[in-house]
């Protein structure tokens, strides 16, 4: 099998059931999801290299499959198959977020991305996820999409934030507080 087809040499690419410009909002949305998936793979490799964070690598592998499903749900020229993403992965993300939050130090101020290398990689995932979400919102303004993909991406960025903080806690690296931050989270209890 050849990896190149020459079919995209003039700026067109294939969807499932049609062809569009590579700048089409569908391509922007699922292309950014693909980009995110690559960063998740990098974070998973970093998490898997340490026994304390190996369980995060396992979670990230599930996320990679779900991101592939999300991109697939957006890749149809005309939706002709059942969607792959539903409520179950969103509910699981919420449980993971709660677990990571409960096992992390209390958050009172905004923090900067980073700390450990794994945490920094997860923060990159968080920001790329937010971009994928924005592009999916833009797509949804133009045509019907699987709304579960939007909910999944929204929850996923929260997961990356919680996992980044948990990674720092597990690796005994403190979060770096934003020095000009007020106590923005005061009055909120853990898991509230």
Automatic annotation (TrEMBL):
Q: Its Enzyme Commission number? A: 2.5.1.17
Q: Which SUPFAM superfamilies match?
A: Cobalamin adenosyltransferase-like
Keyword set for this entry? ATP-binding, Cobalamin biosynthesis, Nucleotide-binding, Transferase
Pathway, per UniProt?
Answer: Cofactor biosynthesis; adenosylcobalamin biosynthesis; adenosylcobalamin from cob(II)yrinate a,c-diamide: step 2/7
According to its UniProt record, this protein's enzyme class is: transferase
Domain of life according to the entry? Bacteria
> What chemistry does it catalyse, as a reaction equation?
2 cob(II)alamin + reduced [electron-transfer flavoprotein] + 2 ATP = 2 adenosylcob(III)alamin + 2 triphosphate + oxidized [electron-transfer flavoprotein] + 3 H(+); 2 cob(II)yrinate a,c diamide + reduced [electron-transfer flavoprotein] + 2 ATP = 2 adenosylcob(III)yrinate a,c-diamide + 2 triphosphate + oxidized [electron-transfer flavoprotein] + 3 H(+)
GO function terms (MF aspect): corrinoid adenosyltransferase activity
Cobalamin adenosyltransferase-like domain residues are 3-166
| Species this chain originates from | Paenibacillus septentrionalis
Which protein, by its recorded name, is this?
Corrinoid adenosyltransferase
What lineage is on file? Bacteria, Bacillati, Bacillota, Bacilli, Bacillales
Q: Which family does it belong to?
A: Belongs to the Cob(I)alamin adenosyltransferase family.
Q: Which InterPro entries does the annotation name?
A: CblAdoTrfase-like, CblAdoTrfase-like_sf, PduO-typ
């Amino acid at each position: 099998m050849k990896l190149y087809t020459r079919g995209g040499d003039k700026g067109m690419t294939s969807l499932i059931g049609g062809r569009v410009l590579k700048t089409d909002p569908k391509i922007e949305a699922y292309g950014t999801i693909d980009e995110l998936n690559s960063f998740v793979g990098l974070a998973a490799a970093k998490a898997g290299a340490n026994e304390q964070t190996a369980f995060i690598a396992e979670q990230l592998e599930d996320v990679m499959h779900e991101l592939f499903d999300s991109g697939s749900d957006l890749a149809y020229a005309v939706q002709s198959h059942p969607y792959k993403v539903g409520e179950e992965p969103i509910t699981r993300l919420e449980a993971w977020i709660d677990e990571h939050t409960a096992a992390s130090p209390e958050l009172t101020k905004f923090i900067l991305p980073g700390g450990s290398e794994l945490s920094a990689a997860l923060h990159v995932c968080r920001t790329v996820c937010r971009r994928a979400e924005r592009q999916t919102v833009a797509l949804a303004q133009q045509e019907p999409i699987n709304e579960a993909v939007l909910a999944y991406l929204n929850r996923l960025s929260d997961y990356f934030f919680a996992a980044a903080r948990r990674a720092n806690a597990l690796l005994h690296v403190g979060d770096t507080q934003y020095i000009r931050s007020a106590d923005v989270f005061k009055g909120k209890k853990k898991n509230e």
